[in-house]
Amino acid sequence: MIIGIVGDTHNNLKNISKICEIFNAEEVDLVIHTGDVTLPKSLKAFEKLNCKLLGVFGNNDIDEKNDLLETSNQFKCNLHDEPFSFKLSNKKITIVHHPELINESLIDQSDFIFHGHTHRYRNEVINETIIFNPGECAGFLKGKNQIGILDIENPPPKVINF
Ligand code: NI
Question: Which of 5, 12, 67, 156 might form a disulfide with 148, Cβ 3.0–4.6 angstroms?
Fold first, then answer.
């Protein structure tokens, strides 16, 4: 099971298009978005994905929450309030936007925790839990862009720069 991890794409439609192309080429089974899609039209741009998109709301998604939810119903997409945990291939995955929500109990109950908000790369192991943020996905910081790919059965996650 291969998953793609992306976050904080904001309204960079060009990047979102590129990100979808990369994930489709990598034939990922699921894409996780760690929040801050921001506008419904930006969420809609993820419709190009060949797989389902699963995400949490970030601080920049709150104003548009209802419209984002409505848009998520138009394609294979589910958005949730953070923290959101689910099981995949017998592994427990937790998605948050804000890293400050990551605490001991969340670490105890998760094999993988994905977060966003900082636009900074993080790939850290705490008590055997992998905490990962792919980093800059919207080109805000020095024109850098990267996304994450994880084979659930064969960690750690790796990054793809674009
Ligand atoms: Ni944020």
Answer: 5
Cα 35 to middle of ligand 1, angstroms? 7
Task: For each of the domains in the chain, give its residue range(s) and CATH number, in order of start.
Answer: 2-161 (3.60.21.10)
Residue 118: name the closest of 103, 97, 139 by CA. 97
**Beta pairing partners, 54:** 32, 78
pTM of this prediction? 0.96
Burial, 10: exposed, middle or buried (Cβ in 10 Å; 0-12, 13-18, 19+)?
buried
Distance 116 CA to ligand 1 centre (A): 7
Ligand 1 center–CA 117 separation, angstroms: 4
- Residue 148 Cα to ligand 1 midpoint, Å, equals 18
Q: How far is the CA of 82 from the centre of ligand 1 (A)?
A: 12
Span from the CA of 121 to the centroid of ligand 1 (angstroms): 14
Amino acid 140: pLDDT = 73
pLDDT tens-digit map of 136-157: 888 876 668 999 999 999 999 9
| Distance between CA atoms of residues 83 and 51, nearest Å | 22
Q: What are the tens digits of pLDDT across the range 16-47?
A: 999 999 999 999 999 999 999 999 999 999 99
